[in-house]
């Protein structure tokens, strides 16, 4: 699996303006309405996978921006898709008790140029995504860290159209794509629904980047360096999704190094460490100041004899912009696969996300617990509960329940 997984535009306001003590609304809105989630299920480029992330630790339900493992059609062509539908409601505290819901459909695939008899080591990835929402999810709690990584304004668009060419131990890729498919991904956080467990909020909350729900034009490349080390760099347009004046509007630049240690039975690294740097250059000051930051990710996995499989992760993020609304972030979590002997395809995830907010005495903190229950082949049901403290820094605590259904094609 070459790596469709785990995008961003300025949306219409989804909630009333926050109190004056909260950081600037335009920045918070980008985080609360647009952060993925993804995130977290983004597959690494093929050169960095041993084997691809279709293995035991990339389990359903896949998050919104991620395509399931492809089905081969022949002649190098493959396809896959998924439908996610969820209902979200505040059951205690919060600002509003009204429910919100969404439904997301994604269809896509890839063309392997070598298997198609064209030229070797090339792959074209493509997908179409649509989202329909009802209610006002951000207004339920007023939290900066939105409770669903599927939530955004309604849209229908080409989500991925990119080409990758492998060159020995390295690769280059260009086209329309999601930054979080390839950078700042946390595989073990993929089942958690809060958007903070995708790309770190110090990146998505402080810069308008090409990630869910709006990808953008990008160019990237990387290489395996041996002994478990790898490095990659990329540049994406600023302020997607418009493709006009891309070269003159600014750019997001990223650099990420990684190190894998040990090997699991399925070939994946037992420990994986990532360190990334990013910088957003804004040419138009009306769209925000230029800024940058750093993030670090650590994942570890282990098995219990004839019992569950465990994985734990840690996320750290910091931003250097003096006006950035989210200067620091800490995320950590645990995933337990086959938690019960009679449910080998189920999994349980626990996560804690803590975002420091500029000008606020309290950090916004989210504790999440979710359980993925396999009903049938390709059909999953996931109940999820989140507890939020100090929403937007000074808001009331809230308990949020979510029920998500996931269907794979």
Automatic annotation (TrEMBL):
What's the protein called, per UniProt?
Putative carbohydrate-selective porin OprB
> What is the source species?
Thiomonas delicata (Thiomonas cuprina)
- Family, per the entry? Belongs to the OprB family.
Which keywords accompany this UniProt record?
Signal
Segment forming the signal sequence: 1-48
Q: Name one Pfam family in it.
A: OprB
Any one GO MF term held by the record is: porin activity
Any single biological process term in GO: carbohydrate transport
Which parts pass through the membrane? none
Region of interest (Disordered), residue spans: 1-24
* GO terms for cellular component: membrane
């Amino acid at each position: 699996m070459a790596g469709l997984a785990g995008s961003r535009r300025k949306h219409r306001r989804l909630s009333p303006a926050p109190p004056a003590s909260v950081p600037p609304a335009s920045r918070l809105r980008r985080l609360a309405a647009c952060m993925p989630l993804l995130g977290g299920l983004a597959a690494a480029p093929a050169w960095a996978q041993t084997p691809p992330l279709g293995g035991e630790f990339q389990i359903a339900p896949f998050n919104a921006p991620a395509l399931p493992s492809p089905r081969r059609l022949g002649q190098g062509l493959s396809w896959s898709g998924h439908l996610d539908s969820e209902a979200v409601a505040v059951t205690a505290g919060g600002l509003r008790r009204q429910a919100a819901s969404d439904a997301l459909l994604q269809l896509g695939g890839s063309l392997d140029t070598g298997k198609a008899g064209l030229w070797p080591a090339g792959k074209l990835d493509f997908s179409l995504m649509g989202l329909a929402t009802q209610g006002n999810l951000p207004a339920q709690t007023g939290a900066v860290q939105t409770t669903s990584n599927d939530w955004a304004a309604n849209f229908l668009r080409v989500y991925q159209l990119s080409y990758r060419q492998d060159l020995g131990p390295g690769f280059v890729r260009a086209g329309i794509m999601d930054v979080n498919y390839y950078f700042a991904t946390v595989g073990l956080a993929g089942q958690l629904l809060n958007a903070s467990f995708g790309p770190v909020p110090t990146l998505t909350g402080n810069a308008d980047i090409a990630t869910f729900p709006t990808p953008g034009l990008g160019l990237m490349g990387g290489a395996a360096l041996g002994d478990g080390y790898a490095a990659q760099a990329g540049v994406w347009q600023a302020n997607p999704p418009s493709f006009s004046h891309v070269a003159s509007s600014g750019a997001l630049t990223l650099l990420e190094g990684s190190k894998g240690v040990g090997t699991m039975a399925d070939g994946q690294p037992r420990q994986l460490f990532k360190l990334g740097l990013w910088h957003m250059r804004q040419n138009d000051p009306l769209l925000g100041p230029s800024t940058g930051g750093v993030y670090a990710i650590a994942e570890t996995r282990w098995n219990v004899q004839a019992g569950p499989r465990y994985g734990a992760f840690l996320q750290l993020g910091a931003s250097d912009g003096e006006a950035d609304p989210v200067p620091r972030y800490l995320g950590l979590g645990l995933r337990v696969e086959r938690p019960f002997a009679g449910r080998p395809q189920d999994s349980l995830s626990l996560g804690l996300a803590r975002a420091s907010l500029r000008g606020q005495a309290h950090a916004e903190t989210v504790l999440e617990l979710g359980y993925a229950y396999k009903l049938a082949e390709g059909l999953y049901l996931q109940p999820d509960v989140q507890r939020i403290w100090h929403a937007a820094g000074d808001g009331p605590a809230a308990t949020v329940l979510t029920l998500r259904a996931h269907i794979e094609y």
